[in-house]
Specification:
heterodimer; A: OB fold (Dihydrolipoamide Acetyltransferase, E2P); 5-stranded antiparallel sheet; B: mainly alpha; MetI-like fold; 11 helices; flat
Chain lengths: 370, 295
């Protein structure tokens, strides 16, 4: 029972079991391990994102929850009930497919009604509920049209309505916004979040787009090579990525090697001798080699001779590009050949290539990764 | 600026004209072919069907009696034609659909190999293929023995020279024409549609009935037409595997045209066959509602 769930008492019967629970779930295709011993628990009414690059196993994980792939090992529970070997049509879970998978031979009405028609729902009820659902996704009046007459964004909303009308206990979304253009994608992100708030169903959203995950999800699990590397809120993961992979996948990072000098005060030393400070709770064991990271927007540049407080690295600007909201600098320093710095254009102090500068940031903005 | 615009206008109009003509130009070769080899012969066929006389001297005389011959003299053969073609189409469909389904959904990397195997028999000449069924269905052959052992046939029962043999021959000869269109339409179906149906509580059987089969209908319609139409007019299977009792309307037309040299009656029979076939097909295509699926 190593499931990661937050809060709640451990007593059986007290409190709700998590909406979705994976226990040591593994999936192998021949020699290839797509999903490697994943355990996690997702609470009711959460917007949960599985984030990772293609091939990291996120879609396979989703497909196992939906019942489209069998698990090689492990147990999947929905609301405490073991559904591991159960066929998709016997799970109270619905999916929004990447390609929408709308039935081309059926009208929008029949597409949305498809799930209800498989259950004992009266025609009158179906009519009422389809109408309600189309209103929710703002497609009232399109009942008689065929899917191909709708735009991509509208088809996307039909797919969502078709899944939600069944009141699933969990809704699975497999890169549902991947086929939309940028503007529409932004709109749909907000739309999806609104709908999730409205219906109060647990959403599990698979995406490779970090911004999309951060915009919508309450909890993000970053997957890499079949494992969950880091799980938490967007802020937690961004500010303290813990692994080099997560630091690089979520936003940009400057990473550098250092040796721990004094763990109790968080003092480390870089290879060339510069001493830096990090939050003490991030370190353990003296003399250990660690990797430090700092986000480009946390660094600011000052002239070479000015007095500084906090961590500082001396260097020379090798590139400066003004992009409106901010200016991006590349600074050549001793530990890192190309330190990325992002400066908001708040004051008129700008640096040009060739200027000697100091890159300064606060110790608590430094994170340690493995 | 305005002069430029004025000068540009006629040129645009010119290209527009040419653009509008292009599709017709592309239609021309095919259209000519159809006129020379279809429309003209068809009109000639109709005209011959209303003539009387003895070869080679026929005279146009509004001889509607030629058409009456179908009912008076060849009713049996006409019934044979439609009965055999219909049963062969149904049987071919029952064999072809699971076959096509298997190749399309379960073929995996063997898909192309299986398709080649399906077409392999067609590398052999049509006559040889049909003749080999004589051996398969022979009175002392394996199939007859087996049927007798299973008590499906009486002691002196036979398959060769019966309607069963003719239908078997037609099914065999047209199986690929049934299988390939069905295969193509099944192959095109997005697998996630079946998954979506399963996701929406449809069991595999329901998903097939509500999603897979409706989406494969264009192939079913094409396959059944490609089998039924040539089968109605077929005469080779009846000659090789049947007796004059199993003769179809095609046999009559063939002998009227080439043996008896009674062109008018042969033409009348041909034309009637065509009209009846078309009249049967129209409601079938309408009822199958495939217009919707041609996307």
């Amino acid at each position: 029972m190593a499931a990661v769930t937050d809060g709640g008492s451990g007593l059986p019967g007290a409190g709700e079991p998590p909406a979705v629970e994976l226990e040591s779930v593994t999936k192998r295709f021949g020699d290839f391990t797509a999903v490697d011993d994943i355990s996690l628990g997702i609470e009711e009414n959460r917007f949960f994102a599985l984030l990772g690059p293609s091939g990291c196993g996120k879609t396979t994980t989703l497909r196992m929850i939906g019942g489209f792939e069998e698990t090689t090992a492990g147990i999947i529970r929905l609301h405490g009930e073991d559904v591991t070997g159960r066929k998709p049509y016997r799970r109270m879970v619905n999916t929004v497919f990447q390609s929408y998978a709308l039935f081309p031979h059926l009208t929008i009405f029949e597409n949305v009604a498809f799930g209800l028609r498989r259950q004992d729902v009266s025609d009158e009820d179906i009519k009422h509920r389809v109408g309600e659902m189309l209103e929710l996704v703002q497609l009232t009046g399109r009942e008689k049209q065929k899917p191909r007459t709708l735009s991509g964004g509208q088809q996307q909303r039909v797919a969502l309505a078709r899944a939600l009308i069944n009141h699933p206990r969990v809704l699975l979304l497999d890169e549902p916004l991947g086929a939309l253009d940028l503007k529409l994608r932004k709109e749909m992100q907000i739309e999806l979040k609104r709908i999730q708030n409205e219906v109060g169903i647990t959403f599990i959203h698979v995406t490779h787009d970090q911004e999309e995950a951060m915009t919508m999800a309450d909890t993000i699990a970053v997957m890499h090579q079949g494992r969950i590397e880091r799980m938490g809120t967007a802020t937690e993961i961004y500010e303290d990525p813990r692994t080099g992979f997560v630091a690089g996948f979520l936003g940009a990072s400057n990473l550098m090697q250092a040796d721990v000098v004094d763990a109790s005060i968080g003092e480390v030393v870089l290879a060339q001798g510069t001493r830096l400070r990090v939050s003490a709770d991030q370190l353990s064991g003296e003399g250990r080699r660690v990797r430090l990271g700092v986000r480009p927007e946390k660094i600011h540049l000052t002239p070479a001779d000015s007095p500084v407080e906090g961590n500082a690295l001396a260097g020379r600007v090798i590139d400066a590009s003004f992009i409106g909201v901010s200016t991006h600098y590349l600074v050549e320093t001793e530990p890192i050949a190309q330190l990325a710095v992002m400066a908001q254009n708040l004051d008129d102090r700008r640096f040009a290539p060739g200027d000697s500068v100091q890159a300064v940031w606060r110790p608590e903005h430094t994170f340690v990764v493995t | 600026m305005s002069t430029v615009a004025q000068e540009a206008a006629p040129t645009t109009r010119g290209t527009n004209w040419r653009r509008k003509l292009v599709p017709y130009g592309l239609l021309l070769p095919g259209g000519l072919w159809l006129i020379v080899f279809y429309v003209v012969p068809m009109l000639r066929l109709v005209s011959v069907s209303l003539q009387t006389g003895i070869y080679p001297r026929y005279r146009f005389s509004w001889a509607w009696s030629n058409y009456a011959e179908l009912v008076t003299n060849y009713g049996g053969q006409a019934v044979n034609s439609f009965a055999y073609a219909l049963s062969a189409t149904v049987i071919a469909f029952l064999i072809a659909y699971p076959l096509a389904y298997f190749i399309a959904f379960r073929g995996g990397r063997w898909k192309n190999f299986l398709l080649v195997m399906l077409l392999m028999p067609f590398l052999m000449p049509f006559l040889l293929r049909t003749l080999s069924w004589k051996i398969i269905l022979a009175d002392n052959g394996l199939v007859v023995d087996l049927f007798k052992a299973l008590n499906l046939l009486g002691e002196d029962g036979r398959l060769l020279a019966t309607g069963v043999a003719v239908v078997a021959g037609i099914v065999y000869n047209f199986l690929a024409f049934m299988t390939l269109p069905i295969y193509v339409s099944l192959e095109k179906i997005d697998r996630s549609l079946v998954e979506a149906a399963n996701d929406l509580y449809a069991s595999p059987a329901v998903a097939f009935r509500k999603v897979t089969f409706p989406l494969s209908r264009p192939g079913v319609v094409a396959g059944t037409l490609l089998t039924f139409i040539p089968a109605v007019g077929d005469y080779v299977n009846a000659v090789l595997l049947g007796t004059p009792q199993q003769f179809m309307i095609g046999n009559v037309i063939q002998s009227r045209f080439l043996v008896v040299l009674d062109y008018p009656v042969a033409a009348a029979l041909s034309f009637t066959l065509m009209i009846v076939t078309v009249l049967l097909i129209i409601p079938y295509v309408r009822a199958s509602g495939t217009e919707d699926l041609v996307a």
